[in-house]
Amino acid sequence: MVTRTTTYDYEQSSESDRERMVPIPWARLCDATPTLGDPAEVISAVPGTEITGTVINPGVVTVDAYAILNVARGAVYRHNVRTTDVLHIAGNLHEHSWRDINIGDTVYYSAETDTLTAGVAKLALTPVQSDGATLNAVFGHVVMMQDETSANFPKLAGAAGNTHVCAVEQE
Amino acid sequence: MVTRTTTYDYEQSSESGRERMLPVPWTRLTDTTPTLGDPAQVTSAVAGSEITGTVVNPGVVTIDPVAVLNVASGAIFRHNVRNVLTYAGGPAEASWQVLNVGDVVYYDVTCEVINAGIKLSVSPLNAATANAIFGNIVMMQDEDAADFPKGGAGSGSTHVCAILQA
Q1: Residue B145 domain-assigned?
Q2: pLDDT tens per residue, range A60-107
């Protein structure tokens, strides 16, 4: 299990001048207590259409309750990604199935995964929430980290789920 | 009610080198008489899949009827946004919602017709067909959280918003 220690690590800087920094009030973030380097999602009235990005500056509430997100498409950051494919709500919220993570796989911002992993992983492979209908927003796609090769893939689903550090190219 | 006067105002320029300027013939624009700074949409055979962007240069018809659009994902411009959510026959506005940071906005031809040129709204459907996503609302440089939400769910209104292009 990957620990909660942030994976904050910018993965790609060969092409500059392409970042998109946007200030967002904490009250409009799905996780209202942002952490440096974590994935973030801005609340929207339409599930699946949310702004997503990486927390560049979480802000300081006593000064100004805003976080700065880099929402640039194509920016690559290391994030914890959960192998969850399907979530169920029957009984208690729980993971139902998992699958391997491979280069190119789409990853989604999953607030339910954030809850289930106590904040370890906000990203997962599951496109819909546990009700089977509400869409998760696409966060990006898995690519290789700078110190990885194709031999590092696939990253295994695990019999009861796994969390892997992955380089994620932002959508 | 916000007037038709353009809101043209680039909201974010601290990071350069990231714009995407595209020339598009007027005949392929949903609004064939483009206005500087307005939202624009390029006609597509599949509703909801259209290219959208902001008119950076509307062009001059006697020389070359081509407009230049900035279609960069993540570019932020000020635009007028209508808070209409659904339509009834007529068409007429049937329901509305408040506008908040993060809300998705669409290029909405029905809104433009009803509201004298206001091209963006929070309505995902244009009658029965899908509207293209234009972007999401963020704060303007001179705004803070106290400026939100904008409008009310009980009636229609138009507000200037910073839009992060999809």
Answers
A1: yes
A2: 887 778 999 999 888 889 999 999 999 998 889 999 999 999 999 999
Question: Which one of B18, B104, B138 has the shortest CB-CB distance to A49?
Answer: B104
**Which residues are within 8 A (CB) of A124 and not within 5 positions of it... i.e. 6 or more apart?**
A81, A82, A83, A84, A107, A108, A110, A113, A136
Q: Is the ipTM of this complex over 0.90?
A: no
Please name which of A90, A122, A169 lies closest in space to residue A2, comparing C-alpha atoms: A122
Tens of pLDDT, residues B88-144: 988 899 999 999 999 999 999 999 999 999 999 999 998 789 999 999 999 998 899
Alpha-carbon distances of A43 from A29, B50, B162, rounded to whole Å? 6, 24, 16
- How far is the C-alpha of A153 from the C-alpha of A98, rounded, in Å? 16
Structural domain containing residue B105:
21-165
Residues across chain B: 166
Smallest Cβ distance to B17: which of A17, A24, A44?
Answer: A17
Any idea how long chain A is? 171
Is B41 contained in some domain?
Answer: yes
Task: Please check whether residue B54 lies inside any domain of the structure.
Answer: yes
Measured between CA atoms, the residue of chain A closest to residue B124 is A46
CB within 8 Å of chain A, chain B residues 40-59: none
Please state the domain extents for chain A: 21-70, 76-170
pTM of the model as a whole: 0.87
Please state the domain count of chain B. 1
Residues of A in contact with B145 (CB under 8 A): 25, 27-28, 65-66
CA distance B75 to chain A (A): 8
Our CA angle for A134, A137, A141, nearest 5°, is 135
